[in-house]
Write a structure and sequence with these properties.
It is built from four helices and 41 strands. It has about 400 residues and is mainly beta. The protein has a single domain, classed as Pectate Lyase C-like (3 Solenoid), CATH 2.160.20. The strands form seven sheets. A twelve-stranded parallel sheet has the order 1-2-4-7-12-15-19-23-27-31-35-38, with helices on one face. A ten-stranded parallel sheet has the order 3-5-8-13-16-20-24-28-32-36, with no helix packed on it. Strand 39 and strand 40 form a beta hairpin.
């Protein structure tokens, strides 16, 4: 009798519904031959498990569902599942206000050419628009688009962790492109390498109005990216990025080989910026037009051209926070603080080089307007500024 009662109770739940949703697993190709068919058949909380192999689909759309779309790992932990769009559009399109519960993981994603929106092809690999999915442990390789070769974030803040984003190409944002004041992706433990673009070869972050976006990069390696114009590694435009514990190395651009800032105030904390090159200014860092980056305990070394270029004529500045100089030759006292640079780079920055073995503690307190660093703002500072008025900076 007890068993009959239990069956009746189960039937009652089936007919009258329950507030709880039981998540299930849908297998591809076991249950559905196509990934999109499995997505269409899924319910909130389901896991779509894609067996090892190569799947040729494009424009995969979760439709706003909080589901997990995942590949399989080999015994050694390498990725066994590949989705190749074969130049048929983006591999994934997330434009239905997906949240962090929409998860894409353990996949090789390749062969995408982007989704047409706002007059440009966006997101060869993954196109996010007004969505905030989770992208984890993926390889995003070999895509092209006009904005965001690997990933495009239009007014979107996806969580991207432990991914390799490599060998992608775009006009802007070869690896990752973020646009809009609500576009603040969180990027952790990723390698972004060998991407190319006109500007922002590794990452491009920009806002659409006076309200900047605030992307976060933590523990990432951004290396060997090439921009023909600005920002080989990172391009910030109206963007107050936080860049922490990152290695930015071997990137190339005409201006700002490692990082290029325009109307941006990024915080760059405990980063290694090395071996980047610029044909013009700022092998490591170049800043223009109301940009005031803050650098905390960073190391800059072996960058070509001038390690740091601050265009003071466009009201840009640099805030340096460090009790000891970074790993470079010696302390260079500038109006906003101290940085360790070579003598030539310090002179180009307009600073006072203290010589080898010096400490940032030896620099006088910052005093805006003290052009000769004597601790007093007076007529001599004004005459010093006027004597250089109209000069062309190198």
């Amino acid at each position: 009798m007890t068993h009959i009662a239990a069956v009746i109770a189960g039937l009652s739940l089936a007919f009258f519904g329950s507030s709880a949703t039981i998540a299930g697993t849908i297998n591809v190709p076991g249950d559905y031959a196509l990934i999109q068919d499995a997505i269409n058949a899924s319910s909130d909380g389901d896991v779509i498990n894609i067996a090892p192999g190569i799947y040729t689909e494009s424009n995969l759309d979760p439709g706003g569902k909080p589901i997990t779309i995942q590949g399989v790992l080999n015994d050694g932990g390498s990725l066994a599942t590949t989705i190749d769009a074969q130049q048929g559009g983006s591999v994934f399109v997330l434009n239905s206000q997906e949240g962090e519960g929409t998860i894409i993981r353990n996949l090789v994603i390749t062969g995408g050419t982007g989704t047409q929106t706002y007059g440009f092809l966006h997101g060869g690999g993954i196109h996010c628009q007004f969505s905030h999915p989770t992208i984890s442990n993926c390889m995003i390789l070999g895509h092209t688009a006009e904005r965001g070769g690997g990933i495009s974030c239009l007014f979107s803040s996806p969580t991207i962790d432990n991914c390799i984003i490599s060998d992608n190409a775009a006009d802007v944002g070869g690896g990752i492109y973020g646009y809009g004041n609500t576009s603040s992706p969180s990027i952790t433990g990723c390698t972004i390498s060998y991407n190319t673009a006109f500007s922002g070869a590794g990452i491009s972050c920009s806002s659409n109005n006076s309200v900047p976006n605030n992307p976060i990069l933590n523990g990432c390696t951004i290396k060997s990216n090439t921009a023909s114009q600005n920002g080989g590694g990172i391009l910030c435009t109206d963007s107050n990025s936080t860049i922490k514990s990152c290695t930015i190395s071997g990137n190339t651009a005409n201006d700002g080989g490692g990082i290029y800032c325009y109307s941006s105030n990024p915080t760059i904390n405990e980063c290694l910026i090395e071996g980047n090159s610029s044909n013009s200014n700022g092998g490591g860092l170049a800043c223009y037009y109301n940009s005031t980056p803050t650098m905390i305990n960073c190391t800059l070394e072996n960058n070509s051209s001038i390690n740091i270029w601050i265009d003071v004529l466009t009201y840009s500045d640099l805030v340096l926070l460090s009790s000891d100089p970074p790993s470079l030759s010696a302390s260079c006292c500038v109006s906003s603080g101290c940085v360790a640079l070579t003598s030539d780079d310090c002179t180009a920055l307009g600073g006072n080089w203290l010589g080898e073995g010096s400490s940032c503690d030896d620099c006088p307190a910052s005093c805006s307007g003290d052009t000769n660093n004597d601790g007093v703002i007076n007529i001599e500072d004004l005459l010093n500024m006027l004597s250089n008025f109209g000069s062309v900076c190198p």
